[in-house]
From TrEMBL:
Entry annotated with the keyword Repressor: no
Organism whose genome encodes this protein: Bos mutus (wild yak)
InterPro entries in the record: Acyl_CoA_acyltransferase, Diverse_Substrate_AcTransf, GNAT_dom
UniProt protein name: Diamine acetyltransferase 2
Segment forming the signal sequence: none
Amino acid sequence: VPDVGEQDGFRDDPRSQGGRLWKYPEADSGEGCWLETRELAEYEKLSDQVKISEEALRADGFGETPFYHCLVAEILSAPGEPQGPCVVGYGLYYFSYSTWKGRNIYLEDIYVKPEYRGQGIGSKIIKKVAEVALDKGCSQLRLAVLDWNKRAMDLYKALGAQDLTEAEGWHCFRFEGEAMRELAGK
C-alpha cells in the first residue's frame, strides 16, 4: 500500500489486499473516471442518456470551481507485473443544502466493476464519502438507486440508509432540455 500522502489523498486499501482509494485527480490522468462513468451508464441500462464529453466532465470536476468531487478505487499490480494500477470503481459526490437539515453530501454515482463486487470496495467508497461529509459538517449523505437494483438497495440498508420512498413517500423529479428552457422562458 502506498504511503499515506496528503490529508485528502485517502490512500488506504479499498479491499485490504493491495489497492488504494484516492481522491481524484491525484493520479496523472482522468481517463479512469470517464471510462467508469460510461460503464455505470451501461450497467444501469441508460447509456443512451450520456451526453457529456470527457472534456466537460474533467472541467466540471477539476476546474477552478469544481461542481463535484470523485473518489477512485484502484487495485495495485502485484510486484513484478508490468501493468500499473487498475481502476476498479469510483464514487462521484457533491455538496447540497437542505433548509431543514443544513449541509448535505449527495453521492451521485457509485460504481464497482462487476468482477470486483462483493469484496467491500463499494462499502469502503460509501464510508469514505460519509467521512468527508462529517468532516465538512454535513448532516446527511443522500443517494438514489434504480428500483431494479436490489443488491445496491440491500447494501445501503445494511449500512444504515433509510429508503425515503418507503418511509416518507418522496419521489424524484427533474427538468431538462426543452422542458427546462421552456420553464426558464428561453
